[in-house]
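FW: tagging you since you asked about this chain on Friday. Here's the raw sequence from the shared folder, copied in full. Didn't touch anything.
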Amino acid sequence: MEKEGTGTTAVTKSGKKITAVEIDDCTFHRCVRLGKFDSERTITFIPPDGEFELMRYRVTQASQPFRLIPTVKEESRTKLLLNLKIHADFGDDRKATSVVVKFPVPTSTATAHIEVSRGRARYEPGERAIVWRISSMPGRTEATLSADVDLVPSTREKQWVRPPISMDFQIPMVAVSGVQVRFLKVYEKSAYQTSRWVRYLSKAGEYQQRI
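HL: got it, structure written out here
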């Protein structure tokens, strides 16, 4: 297993220097021969029928594919100015898809005038947030949102708690953990034809930014 970036340096059999991923915890399917992994970091197994989860792992130093920079200005008791800038910090040869950003607003929100540089955004009362949808966002680009939020005057003074901004996305062919499959071999003794391929997909999980 290898990782581009900072970490423990190792040398392959061919003499190539690589940076190994520091995996904090991992578990394997019972079909895996653990001795090979401990000595060579090679996962050898005889697969069972059907689809199955071969390995589950966790890393604490995964790269962050996006940077969110929010600003909130309370102009008065009845008006908020919101701004959000998103930086895509992954390679420019990749694209994030199905990007959804939820920027929370007070429950007393009446209307919101919103402008975005990419995608579409609108205030959704059911979400208590401005929901910004971007179908596709290439790496090394940025997108901005600005909103004028009008609030309903209230006789009860209750401070806005400011929940975090949440983000959902998918990035095909990117593994933000840094784990990469360097080779895949299939030993087939029968005449059965096999197809070898590796697909990476990064999903958001719980991706949040405090306001």
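FW: The first helix runs from residue 34 to 40.
HL: agreed, and The chain is about 5% helix and 45% strand.
FW: great, closing this out.
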